[in-house]
C-alpha cells in the first residue's frame, strides 16, 4: 500500500516544494521509500510514498516510467490478477524487468488505454501521465477501498491519497463546505464525490478521470456498476449457488494471501472473518490470526469465539487486551481521518491494526459481507416494517410521522423508526441510521445560520438504489454509501496510520457481482434471519458449535466510558468550549439525554471528532 500525490497544469508549476511536503505528510502510507518526478516542461509532477508489499527490491520504486519515458505512473493498492495479466501481455510481446504489479499496470495502460481498469481485479487508486497524449488519467477501484481526493482550480489539478497531502499548502482551501457538513451531521459520513472542504472533491469508486492539462478539459466517467439481478423467473438452485460462493470466496482469499511480506487475518469471531479464516486455511498451512478483547466489558468481549475458530483451523493466534484506551488516541485519529467520520469503531480498528503490524505487513478482513449478503440487524426490522405498514395509506403514515417525531427527544429508542413510518417503501429508503434530523442540524449550526444548507435528505434520495426489490435497494444503497464512505474509510485510514495493508476478500468484484446479480433476496435476509447463504456456508466450513446468530465486529464500550472518567470529561471539555462550532444549548441537551439513558453516544462522538479535526487543521 502506498500514498500518491500530484499536480498537473497548463502552465509550468512554479512552486514545486508542496509536492514533496504533501507526499511526506503521508509517510505512514509508505515508510519504505519515497519518490518524486516532474515532466520536462514542469507542468506535471507526481510524488509517491511506498509500503513495499510485492517486489521489495529497488525496481519497485515509484514514480515508475516505461523505457521510452512516455508513460509515468504512481500507484496505491494491489492488483490481485497481475500475474495473469502479465502472462497475457507477455504474449503481446511486452517485456517486464520487475516483479511488481505497478509495471503490469503501466503495460495495461499501454495496451488498453482507458479500458485498462476493466481488466484489473484489485483495490487501487492511481495516476498515469501519458506524454504523447498530453493527459493525466486517474482511477479508483470498484468498491472504493483506496481513496483519492482532488481539486481543480485555474486549470491546475491537484490530487492526493489523503486530504492532508493537499492541506499542507497554506493556499489550499480551509473552508467548510456546508452542504457536505449537513450530510455529515445526518449520515455520519460524507457521500460520493462531496468533500468537507470547499473546492475539493473525491473521485467516486468505480470512476476514472481524464485531465487534458493543456486545455483544462476534465472528464469523469463511471467504468463499472453493480449488476442487475438477473434471475427474473425466481428459480434457483441453492446448493449450486452455495458451491459457486465457496469457490469464488476461496479463490479471492487465496489471491489476496499473495505477498512478499507476512500476511495475517483479522478475526473478530463473527461469520465473515471466520469464513475468511476458513478459506485462508485451505490456501496456506501457516495462517496468523488476530483479535482484540475488552475483558472488563463482557458485552464487547468476543475473544472466546475468535479463539475457538483459531483453534479449529490451527492458526497462530494473537490477542490484544484493550480495556482502557488512552483518550489521546482520539485526537491522533481525528488528525488521521481527512474528513471527520462518526464511527467510534475506528478506535478498535486502529488498535487491532497496531497489533497486527507488529507481526505482519498485510492482513485480510471480513468487510463487505454485511452489505453483500444482508448482515445488518436493521435489515430484518426494515423488511418487517415494510410489510406491516402497507395497511396504512402513505399520506396517513407521513402525517403521523411528522406529528409524532418532533415530540420524541433525540436519542430516545425508536425515534428514527417512528420517522421511518412515513417512508414510501415502494421507491425510497427510510433513514433509520440518521444522526440528526433537519431541525436539529439547523439548530446545531445556529452560529453559521447564513451558511447552512439543508440538503442531506435530497442527497440520500438521489444516491439511493432504484432496484425494485426492497432488500436489493437497501443493500445496494449501503454498498454505495455507508460501506464506501464509512467502513472502507475507517479501515484504510486506521490501517495505513500503522503502515499496514488491509485487504477485503468479499470485495473481489466477482464476489460482488455474484452477490447482487445472482443471489436472491430470500437467501440473504428475511424478517427473522440474516446472511442466510453465508450461514449455510458456515455450516459447511466452521465448527458445529459455532454460533452463527451473533453479529460481531470490532467495537468499544463508549456508552460506559461516557458515564464518568476521562472520556466523559474530555467530551464535555471539547463540546462546551467557547471555540466549539456547535450550539451550546443543543450540545447540553444531548449530554443531558445521554445521562438519562438515551442513545447519543455516536452522536456525541461525531461532534467531538469533528471539533478535534477542525481545530487540528484550522478549518474555518
Description:
By secondary structure, the chain is of the alpha+beta class. Among the domains are: 2-163 and 200-222, Glutamine Phosphoribosylpyrophosphate, subunit 1, domain 1, CATH 3.60.20.10; 238-324 and 344-374 and 473-541, HUPs (Rossmann fold, 3-Layer(aba) Sandwich). The protein is built from 23 helices and 17 strands. The protein has a six-stranded antiparallel sheet. The chain has a six-stranded antiparallel sheet with strand order 4-5-6-7-11-12, covered by helices on one side. Strand 4 and strand 5 (71-79) form a beta hairpin. It starts with a strand and ends with a helix.
Strand order of the largest sheet: 2-3-1-9-8-10
CATH superfamily of the domain at 238-324 and 344-374 and 473-541: HUPs
Beta-strand segment tally? 17
Q: What is the gyration radius calculated from CA atoms? A: 24 Å
Provide the helix percentage: 25-40%
Number of helical runs?
Answer: 23
Return the CATH topology of the domain at 238-324 and 344-374 and 473-541.
Rossmann fold
Largest sheet: 6 strands, antiparallel
Task: List the SSEs and their pairings.
Layout: E1 2-9, H1 17-24, E2 33-38, E3 44-50, E4 64-65, E5 71-79, H2 82-91, H3 101-112, E6 122-130, E7 135-140, E8 149-153, E9 156-160, H4 164-167, H5 178-187, E10 201-202, E11 207-212, E12 217-222, H6 238-256, E13 263-266, H7 271-283, E14 288-293, H8 303-312, E15 316-321, H9 328-336, H10 346-357, E16 362-364, H11 369-373, H12 377-388, H13 394-404, H14 415-420, H15 438-444, H16 456-463, H17 470-497, E17 501-503, H18 509-517, H19 532-541, H20 558-561, H21 566-575, H22 584-595, H23 601-616
Amino acid at each position: 500500500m502506498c500514498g500518491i500525490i500530484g499536480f498537473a497544469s497548463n502552465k509550468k508549476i512554479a512552486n514545486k516544494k508542496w509536492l514533496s511536503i504533501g507526499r511526506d505528510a503521508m509517510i505512514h502510507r509508505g515508510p519504505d521509500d519515497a519518490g518524486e518526478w516532474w515532466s520536462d516542461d514542469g507542468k506535471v509532477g507526481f510524488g509517491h510514498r511506498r509500503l513495499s508489499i510485492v517486489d521489495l527490491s529497488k525496481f519497485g520504486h515509484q514514480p515508475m516510467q516505461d523505457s521510452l519515458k512516455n508513460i509515468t505512473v504512481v500507484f496505491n493498492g494491489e492488483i490481485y490478477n497481475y500475474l495473469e495479466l502479465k502472462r497475457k501481455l507477455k504474449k503481446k510481446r511486452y517485456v517486464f524487468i520487475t516483479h511488481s504489479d505497478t509495471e503490469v499496470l503501466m503495460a495495461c495502460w499501454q495496451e488498453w488505454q482507458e479500458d485498462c481498469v476493466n481488466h484489473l481485479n484489485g483495490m487501487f487508486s492511481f495516476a498515469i501521465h501519458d506524454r504523447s497524449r498530453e493527459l493525466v488519467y486517474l482511477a479508483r477501484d470498484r468498491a472504493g477501498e483506496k481513496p483519492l481526493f482532488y481539486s481543480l482550480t485555474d486549470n491546475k489539478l491537484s490530487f492526493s491519497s489523503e486530504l492532508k497531502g493537499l492541506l499542507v499548502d497554506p493556499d489550499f482551501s480551509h473552508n467548510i463546505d456546508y452542504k457536505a457538513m449537513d450530510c455529515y451531521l445526518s449520515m455520519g459520513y460524507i457521500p460520493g464525490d462531496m468533500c468537507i472542504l470547499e473546492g475539493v472533491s473525491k473521485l467516486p469508486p468505480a470512476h476514472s478521470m481524464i485531465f487534458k492539462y493543456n486545455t483544462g478539459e476534465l472528464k469523469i466517467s463511471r467504468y463499472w456498476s453493480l449488476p442487475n439481478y438477473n434471475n427474473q423467473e425466481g428459480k434457483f438452485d441453492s446448493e449450486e449457488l452455495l458451491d459457486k460462493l465457496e469457490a469464488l470466496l476461496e479463490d479471492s482469499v487465496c489471491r489476496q494471501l499473495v505477498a512478499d511480506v507476512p500476511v495475517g487475518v483479522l478475526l473478530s469471531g463473527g461469520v465473515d472473518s471466520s469464513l475468511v479464516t476458513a478459506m485462508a486455511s485451505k490456501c496456506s498451512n501457516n495462517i496468523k490470526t488476530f483479535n482484540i478483547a475488552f475483558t472488563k466489558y463482557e458485552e464487547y468481549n468476543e475473544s472466546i469465539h475468535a479463539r475457538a475458530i483459531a483453534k479449529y483451523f490451527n492458526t497462530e493466534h494473537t490477542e490484544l487486551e484493550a480495556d482502557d484506551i488512552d483518550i489521546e488516541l482520539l485526537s491522533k485519529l481525528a488528525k488521521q481521518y481527512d474528513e471527520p467520520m462518526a464511527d467510534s469503531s475506528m478506535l478498535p480498528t486502529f488498535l487491532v491494526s497496531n497489533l497486527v503490524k507488529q507481526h505482519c505487513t498485510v492482513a485480510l478482513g471480513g468487510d463487505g459481507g454485511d452489505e453483500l449478503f444482508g448482515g445488518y440487524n436493521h435489515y430484518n426490522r426494515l423488511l418487517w416494517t415494510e410489510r406491516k405498514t402497507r395497511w396504512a395509506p402513505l399520506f396517513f403514515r407521513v402525517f403521523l410521522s411528522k406529528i409524532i417525531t418532533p415530540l420524541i427527544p433525540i436519542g430516545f429508542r425508536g425515534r428514527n423508526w417512528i420517522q421511518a413510518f412515513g417512508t414510501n417503501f415502494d421507491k425510497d429508503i427510510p433513514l433509520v441510521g440518521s444522526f440528526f434530523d433537519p431541525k436539529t442540524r439547523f439548530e446545531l449550526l445556529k452560529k453559521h445560520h447564513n451558511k447552512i444548507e439543508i440538503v442531506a435528505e435530497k442527497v440520500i434520495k438521489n444516491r439511493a438504489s432504484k432496484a425494485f426489490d426492497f432488500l436489493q435497494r437497501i443493500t445496494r444503497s449501503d454498498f454505495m454509501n455507508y460501506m464506501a464512505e464509512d467502513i472502507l474509510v475507517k479501515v484504510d485510514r486506521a490501517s495505513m496510520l500503522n503502515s499496514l495493508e488491509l485487504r477485503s476478500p468479499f470485495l473481489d468484484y466477482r464476489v460482488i457481482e455474484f452477490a447482487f446479480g445472482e443471489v436472491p433476496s430470500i437467501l440473504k435476509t428475511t424478517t427473522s434471519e440474516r446472511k442466510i447463504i453465508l450461514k449455510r456456508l458456515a455450516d459447511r466450513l466452521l465448527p458445529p458449535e459455532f454460533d452463527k446468530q451473533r453479529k460481531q465486529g470490532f467495537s468499544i464500550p463508549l456508552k460506559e466510558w461516557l458515564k464518568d472518567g476521562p472520556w466523559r470529561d474530555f467530551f464535555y471539555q471539547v463540546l462546551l468550549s467557547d471555540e466549539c462550532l456547535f450550539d451550546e444549548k443543543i450540545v447540553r441537551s444531548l449530554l443531558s439525554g445521554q445521562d438519562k439513558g438515551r442513545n447519543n453516544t455516536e452522536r456525541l462522538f461525531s461532534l467531538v471528532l469533528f471539533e478535534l479535526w477542525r481545530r487540528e487543521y484550522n478549518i474555518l
